[in-house]
Each structure stands twice: as structure tokens, then as C-alpha cells.
Amino acid sequence: MFPTTIAGSLPKPAWLAEPDKLWPQWRLSGPDLAAGKLDATLVWLKLQEEAGIDIVTEGEQSRQHFVHGFLEFVDGIDFAHKVEMGIRNNRYKAMVPTVTGALKLKGRVHGAESRFARAHTAKKLKITMPGPMTIIDTIADQHYGDRVKMAFAFADLLNAEARALEADGVDVIQFDEPAFNVYMAEVTTWGIEALHRAIEGLKCATAVHICYGYGIKANIDWKATLGGEWRQYEQIFPALAASKLTEVSIESIHSKVPLSLMSLLKGKNVQIGVIDVATDAVETPEDVAQAIEAAMKHVPKERIVCGTNCGMAPMRRDIAAAKLVALGKGAALARQRFG
């Protein structure tokens, strides 16, 4: 009851990359960097296990950024000449690579870290990848000339890697789609269909994570403009409930999302955010248990998965570790009360 997991990312150790940054620069290179990524993966696997996390991740320790960590393994993309582009409907700007030719995988993307993680934990293992809509919202195009066509080209690549991850022994494959909270009309016209392409043929659990973004200033400022209730989910949840995905991961604690909207995800497992990534304040187990109790009014308790609102990549390492402990203890407390 109430299995625990995280949205996906965790802070990189200071010896591996610049701390407290969303786009950190690596502090190692060559073979040392490859080894350091796996060392950091092992650290976080063990910290998750000790905190009582049931479905662990490799913490995205091998990726500089959750989107570009995938793009680096794709031919047809020019990283040498980045351009400035508005992200999430111009919420903030970033320097992004450009699609200049037909897209093709260079080989495995997350094979090294997924096989390493599978070999070093007996827990269920989740690997995350960016969803097609979020990818095309984070890259410039000089080849396809059509957003949807390019999204489906990426969906095919994601599917190839997802199938390989399943063969590696990964239990849950999650696609991160923060863009679903920005381009809601496109979610129902082609966004979910693109995700179906990405999960085609998979037998493992499949999830989509849809949040209001990392705890960075641009996202916090954007949230302040959304009014007293955040109802973006209302426009997309019915379509997600009818989708082929196993699970939907959402932002919840300390947000202005009406909890009643969770009832629109009938039939799906719902990963509720019971840990706030936009604050350094560490939740108590009681805070977590209360967030779970509130969700139980709208989601059957056997379908609740307890997680974080978003990734914790830009967070201080000690705070992220403490929040993991709160998550594990809070879910245990909820099991005692409601299990």
C-alpha cells in the first residue's frame, strides 16, 4: 500500500558536477566522468533504499539535463551551434540544439546506467525519459518543418530505447511531459497518441509525469500568475484516463491544484506529489501522511503511489536526501493508519 518513488532526478554530487544547478557543468571528463556517473548512481540507489523508497531510480546522474541527456545520443541534431529559444510557451529562454536532419539513435541511450542500477538493487527500478511533446518544446527545428511530425519521429526513438530498457529489467518506464500543462489542446489532438507510439509493445508499467516544473525562479514566477486554482489538469485528465498508460504522475502538495481533479483519472494509478521540490523546507512524516489522506478522498487507496512534485536535480543534496527520508517515513505512517 502507498508505494513510494520520486519523479526521477536527484542532485549530482559536487565532485561530479556543479551543485544546485539545473544545467550543471561536469567536473570530470573521459573515463573518469563515465565512472563518476555510475558512482553517483550507486550513492543515490543506496540512499533511496535506506529511506524506504520502494521504486527507485538512477537519479538521472548520467544526464546533464533531463531532455538533452536523451538528445545527445541522437544523430541529426547539431549541438555545436545552439540557438536561444523560448521554452514552455516562452516561460523562460534556453540555448538549445537544432534538428538538422533525419533523426536516428546512435545506439543505446541509458543502457549503461540502467544495467548498472538493475545489478545493484533488488527494488523495483524506474527509468525516466522526456516525452515527445516536451522534447520538441526544448529543441529548434531546421529539418522537419512540422512539430507533430518531429514529435512522432522522436516517439519512435523513445520506443526503441524503452523496449531496450524493459529488456534490461526496468520495471517502470516514465515519460516526463511538463509541456502537457502548457499546450493542453495539443495533448488530446496528438500528444497522447505520440506517447502511445513511445510505449508501443511494452509490457512493463508505463507512466507519464506532468508537473508545474522544477523549483526554479521561472517556474515559481509562472505559478504566481495562475490564480487561486490551477485547473490545467482538468483539460487533459479525461483523455489520460482513457489512454493506454498505466500511471499518471502529478503535482499535489503545496500546490493550488484542486484535489478533486484526481477523480478524473479513474482506472489509473496516480502518483501524487507528497514532497514539494520548490522549497528547501523538509516535510515531516505527518505532512506526507496528511497529503496521502487528502488524496484518498478522490483516488482509491490501492491506486495511490507516493512521490515528489517534480525532479530534485537543482536542489541541495542534503535537503534532497532528507526529503527522501520524509517520503519513506510518511508513507509508512500512512500504511499504519489507512493500510
Task: Please write out the topology.
Layout: H1 30-51, E1 55-57, H2 68-71, E2 74-87, E3 92-105, H3 111-119, E4 124-130, H4 132-136, E5 140-141, H5 147-168, E6 172-176, H6 184-199, E7 205-210, H7 217-223, H8 232-241, E8 247-250, E9 269-275, H9 285-295, E10 304-308, H10 317-338
Parallel strand pairs: 1-4, 3-5, 4-6, 6-7, 7-8, 8-9, 9-10
Antiparallel strand pairs: 2-3
What is the compact description of this entry?
The protein has 339 residues and is of the alpha/beta class. The protein is built from 10 helices and 10 strands.
DSSP strand count: 10
What is the molecular shape?
globular
CATH topology: TIM Barrel
Number of domains: 1
Biggest sheet overview: 7 strands, parallel
Spatial sequence of strands, sheet with the most strands? 1-4-6-7-8-9-10
Strand residue percentage:
15-25%
Mean pLDDT across every amino acid position:
95
Encode the helix/strand succession as letters: HEHEEHEHEHEHEHHEEHEH
Gyration radius, to the nearest Å? 19 Å
Low-confidence stretches: none
The rounded distance between the terminal residues' Cα atoms is: 6 Å
Helix percent reads 25-40%
| The top level CATH class name | Alpha Beta
The number of helical segments is 10
Descriptive notes:
This protein is an alpha/beta fold and 339 residues long. It has one domain (30-338): TIM Barrel (Alpha-Beta Barrel), CATH 3.20.20.210. It has helices at residues 30-51, 68-71, 111-119, 132-136, 147-168, 184-199, 217-223, 232-241, 285-295, 317-338; strands at residues 55-57, 74-87, 92-105, 124-130, 140-141, 172-176, 205-210, 247-250, 269-275, 304-308. Helix 9 packs across helix 10. The longest helix is centred in the first third of the chain and has 22 residues, at 30-51. The termini are close together.
